[in-house]
């Protein structure tokens, strides 16, 4: 089943990937206006934009010569800018809206809600990052990547949206220099013995889930796709955009077709929108969740001893799928498609040679040297003797 396409829109209107509402982007008198029409109906969105344009033109006609429009004078505080960005990025309709709002509010609180967006400095961001690192979770400090995501990514998006929508200069903050160093991941192929342990340890209702993720390399948070995202004819699953990945169709092996078809039939009968579920007493189906999957992976990696070998969870299965494909094809382009990366730069890390490849290359070099050393001197030895005779003369 193909994903339903959104209707085409008129000029200055567009769909935002995280919002069900139509957004507008319009420039007038050297000032850019960005916002939400608060509707998903193209006709009503067009009417909203026309009313907005009419009010703005009326406001400009009422200005005295040399007077600056009120909209352009007002530089919002970080708190107000965060509210605008929250609505622009989808508001309560976006996925995991409560978590996103809570993280955004915390970031604004740590930087300073009363600061004007043009007054925020690198020192303010650095202080907020230090304060964020001091917030412990289960007695442990957050990782560098978590701090970067919590402060830099969120506050930068808020400030840039506020400045761009008002056509005012962005504050000169060197975001790249403020970011904490994040070590590059070291993906590796897991041994067959370890993969068998990881697949056999969890309860039976997780095994299809684990095998499907192992083969497709889909992120754990993206594994909970809807029934409408599955195309049994093309053997693909539509994966929504997230993080550094784009919206894409993940191909799966035809061997999963019968399993998915059976699960889709049972899910529809039970009124579920996911193929991942467990069967309770009397045949009642309960959908599996992201939280349940996270807990399962923590239990499995600890129980099988995989955690001691550096396997932290489901993302290692994704990396294994990528390394497995690269080892077979040596084609980074295919790995990029498998993982749904936007940029090839994110995929280059999978091009590193693993230990087995290094050992095999060294063995080939050793055999080549031995074969070369076993060759007879032949003509070259005669040339040396002739040279020695000539030197005596």
What's the topology here?
Elements: E1 13-15, E2 22-28, E3 31-36, H1 42-61, H2 70-73, H3 78-88, H4 97-111, H5 122-133, H6 144-166, H7 175-178, H8 192-200, H9 207-216, E4 230-231, E5 236-239, E6 248-251, H10 257-270, E7 277-279, E8 285-287, H11 290-303, H12 314-329, H13 332-339, H14 355-373, H15 379-392
Antiparallel strand pairs: 1-2, 2-3, 4-5, 5-6, 7-8
* Biggest sheet architecture: 3 strands, antiparallel
- Counting DSSP E segments of at least 2 residues, the number of strands comes to 8
Q: Give Rg in angstroms.
A: 29 Å
Class derived from helix and strand content:
mainly alpha
Give the strand order, joined by hyphens, for the main sheet: 1-2-3
- The percentage helix is 40-55%
Distance between the termini: 91 Å
Strand content: 5-15%
Low-confidence stretches: none
Global mean pLDDT? 82
| SS summary, helix count | 15
Q: What is the number of domains?
A: 3
The topology string of helices and strands comes to EEEHHHHHHHHHEEEHEEHHHHH
Q: Report the principal-axis shape.
A: globular
């Amino acid at each position: 089943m193909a994903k339903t396409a959104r209707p085409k829109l008129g000029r200055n209107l567009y769909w935002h990937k995280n919002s069900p509402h139509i957004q507008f982007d319009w420039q007038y008198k050297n000032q850019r206006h960005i916002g939400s029409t608060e509707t998903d109906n193209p006709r009503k969105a067009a009417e909203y934009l026309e009313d907005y344009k009419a009010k703005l033109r009326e406001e400009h006609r009422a200005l005295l010569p040399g007077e600056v429009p009120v909209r352009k004078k007002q530089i919002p505080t970080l708190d107000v800018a965060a509210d605008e960005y929250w609505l622009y990025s989808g508001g309560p309709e976006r996925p995991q809206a409560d978590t996103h709002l809570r993280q955004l509010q915390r970031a604004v609180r740590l930087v300073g809600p009363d600061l004007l967006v043009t007054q925020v400095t690198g020192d303010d961001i650095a202080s907020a990052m230090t304060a964020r690192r001091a917030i412990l979770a289960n007695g442990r400090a957050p990782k560098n990547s978590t701090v970067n995501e919590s402060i830099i990514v969120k506050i930068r998006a808020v400030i840039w949206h506020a400045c761009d929508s008002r056509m005012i200069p962005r504050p000169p903050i060197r975001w790249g220099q403020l970011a904490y160093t994040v070590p590059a991941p070291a993906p590796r192929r897991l041994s067959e013995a370890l993969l068998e342990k990881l697949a056999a340890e969890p309860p039976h209702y997780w095994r299809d889930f684990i095998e499907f993720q192992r083969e497709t390399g889909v992120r754990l948070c993206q594994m909970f796709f809807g029934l409408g995202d599955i195309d049994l004819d093309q053997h693909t699953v539509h994966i929504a955009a997230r993080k550094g990945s784009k919206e894409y169709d993940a191909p799966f092996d035809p061997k999963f077709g019968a399993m998915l078809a059976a699960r889709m039939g049972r899910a529809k009968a039970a009124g579920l929108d996911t193929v991942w579920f467990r069967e309770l007493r009397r045949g009642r189906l309960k959908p599996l969740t992201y939280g349940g999957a996270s807990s399962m992976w923590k239990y499995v990696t600890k129980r099988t001893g995989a955690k001691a070998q550096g396997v932290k969870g489901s993302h290692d299965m994704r990396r294994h799928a990528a390394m497995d494909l690269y080892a077979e094809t040596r084609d980074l382009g295919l790995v990029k498609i498998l993982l749904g990366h936007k940029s090839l730069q994110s995929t280059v890390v999978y091009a590193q040679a693993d230990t087995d490849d290094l050992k095999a290359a060294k063995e080939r070099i050793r055999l080549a040297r031995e074969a070369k050393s076993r060759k007879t001197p032949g003509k070259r030895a005669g040339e040396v003797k002739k040279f020695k005779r000539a030197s005596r003369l």
